[in-house]
């Protein structure tokens, strides 16, 4: 199993990034691929998790070891697969997720794509009281905006963001509902995704 990959960000798409190392391009699925746009053609360290199933061999990547551990905790819950765990991590609000689990707030947890009442209840049963040791002081900083200035966005950046939200499992109806609010903003693709996820979770 691969623990991490150090290499160059060769490609960024709605679902994955490609990390080139030793002449090989590794396709890595990650919570918010466009967060790596600013590192294109630069070297990064990606902490990885290899998912193997009869019909699937996939590599999932994370910007920190703590994020990887949280992913592993999430996929240990019956009913949550890697795609669902990525959607939770991409939300940018891990504190809310942990708080919802600790306070048994099923309503909040069911806002994530693919998480119904039964799965939300299972998340609470399996993870309540077990996350503080995974990412203690790390939670306040996970996927928070880095304070970079907004720049005028092209329609292409918004389209990329909407494709990324679709890849996370949100329905066309849910995405259409927030798209008008996003169009009013001038953001980067990464910022559009963060904003869209906040609207989806708070709506």
UniProtKB/TrEMBL annotation:
Location comes to: Cytoplasm
Q: Gene3D superfamilies under this entry?
A: 5' to 3' exonuclease, C-terminal subdomain, DNA helicase RuvA subunit, C-terminal domain, Nucleic acid-binding proteins
GO CC, sorted alphabetically, is: cytoplasm; Holliday junction helicase complex; Holliday junction resolvase complex
A molecular function (GO) held by this record is:
ATP binding
- Keyword DNA repair attributed: yes
Q: Taxonomically, which superkingdom? A: Bacteria
Write out the GO biological process terms: DNA recombination; DNA repair
Give all residue intervals belonging to the Helix-hairpin-helix DNA-binding motif class domain: 72-91, 107-126
Q: What is the predominant subcellular site recorded for this chain? A: cytoplasm
Keyword DNA-binding attributed: yes
Q: Where is this region: Domain III?
A: 155-203
**InterPro entries xref list:** DNA_helicase_Holl-junc_RuvA_I, Hlx-hairpin-Hlx_DNA-bd_motif, NA-bd_OB-fold, RuvA, RuvA_2-like, RuvA_C, RuvA_C_sf
What keyword terms does UniProt attach to this protein?
A: Cytoplasm, DNA damage, DNA recombination, DNA repair, DNA-binding, Hydrolase
Domain comment as written in the entry: Has three domains with a flexible linker between the domains II and III and assumes an 'L' shape. Domain III is highly mobile and contacts RuvB.
Q: In which family does this protein belong, per the annotation?
A: Belongs to the RuvA family.
Say what the protein does: The RuvA-RuvB-RuvC complex processes Holliday junction (HJ) DNA during genetic recombination and DNA repair, while the RuvA-RuvB complex plays an important role in the rescue of blocked DNA replication forks via replication fork reversal (RFR). RuvA specifically binds to HJ cruciform DNA, conferring on it an open structure. The RuvB hexamer acts as an ATP-dependent pump, pulling dsDNA into and through the RuvAB complex. HJ branch migration allows RuvC to scan DNA until it finds its consensus sequence, where it cleaves and resolves the cruciform DNA.
Subunit-structure text: Homotetramer. Forms an RuvA(8)-RuvB(12)-Holliday junction (HJ) complex. HJ DNA is sandwiched between 2 RuvA tetramers; dsDNA enters through RuvA and exits via RuvB. An RuvB hexamer assembles on each DNA strand where it exits the tetramer. Each RuvB hexamer is contacted by two RuvA subunits (via domain III) on 2 adjacent RuvB subunits; this complex drives branch migration. In the full resolvosome a probable DNA-RuvA(4)-RuvB(12)-RuvC(2) complex forms which resolves the HJ.
Q: What is this protein called?
A: Holliday junction branch migration complex subunit RuvA
The lineage is:
Bacteria, Bacillati, Bacillota, Bacilli, Bacillales
């Amino acid at each position: 199993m691969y623990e991490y990959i150090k290499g160059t960000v060769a490609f960024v798409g709605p679902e994955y990034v490609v990390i080139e190392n030793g002449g090989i391009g590794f396709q890595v699925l990650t919570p918010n691929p466009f967060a790596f746009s600013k590192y294109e053609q630069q070297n990064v360290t990606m902490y990885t998790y290899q998912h193997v199933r009869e019909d699937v061999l996939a590599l999932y990547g994370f910007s920190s070891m703590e994020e990887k551990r949280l992913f592993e905790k999430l996929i240990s819950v019956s009913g949550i697969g890697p795609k669902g765990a990525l959607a939770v991590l991409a939300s940018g609000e891990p504190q809310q997720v942990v708080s919802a689990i600790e306070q048994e707030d099923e309503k909040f947890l069911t806002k994530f794509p693919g998480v119904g009442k039964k799965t939300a209840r299972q998340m609470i049963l399996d993870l309540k009281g077990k996350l503080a040791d995974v990412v203690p002081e790390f939670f306040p900083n996970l996927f928070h905006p880095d304070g970079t200035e907004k720049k005028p966005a092209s329609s292409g950046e918004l389209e990329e963001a909407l494709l990324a939200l679709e890849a996370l499992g949100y329905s066309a109806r849910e995405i259409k509902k927030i798209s008008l609010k996003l169009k009013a903003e001038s953001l980067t693709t990464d910022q559009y995704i963060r904003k869209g996820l906040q609207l989806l979770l708070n709506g």
